[in-house]
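Subject: sequence -> structure tokens, single chain

Hey, anyone have a minute? Need the predicted structure for the following. Not urgent.
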Amino acid sequence: MKTIGITGGVGAGKSAVLNYLKEKYDACILVADELAKELELPGGDCYEALREAFGDKILAADGQLDKKAFSQLIFSDEEMLKKANGIIHPAVKKEILARIKEEEEAGRGLFVLEAALLIEDGYKEILDELWYIYTDTEERFRRLEQSRGYSREKSMSIMRRQLSDIEFRKYCDFIIDNSGDVSETECQIDALLYNTSFS
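Reply:
Had a minute. Here:
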């Protein structure tokens, strides 16, 4: 089984790449952010550890994690953020490794992981390839305004907190330029996977 990590800045169009890989290549798609949310639910691997570390003040009335209260707490204090990441990131990585093994045993040919912190969290060590989805900045501004209603200032503030184009290029094995038409992006993906044996 081939394993690929997909990364890139906000508004780069990673979802379109994932959808194409799923539809054309029957890839198992795993989005790390969605997995983290699953693990934070009651009964999930992170739930009790987060509750122990931060107390019931991070819980909503129904006992689930209060996303707003939790975000305000960890993003206002660097130490709190480190503590939360120290619980969530290892649990997510452990579950990703388990899912990779599961899909391989089931005979899946292609496993694709999308994660914002793919490079920072050391996923290069456990995946065959890292793909950087590049889109020029002006196009990203346009997409984020259109799809999410973000102002230029909001988009810029998010972009500043992410890796630079230079850093993405330095650590990734391949670059997909997603600035143009979707068919151009699909051709680049097909070229990268041409002659790949998914076994």
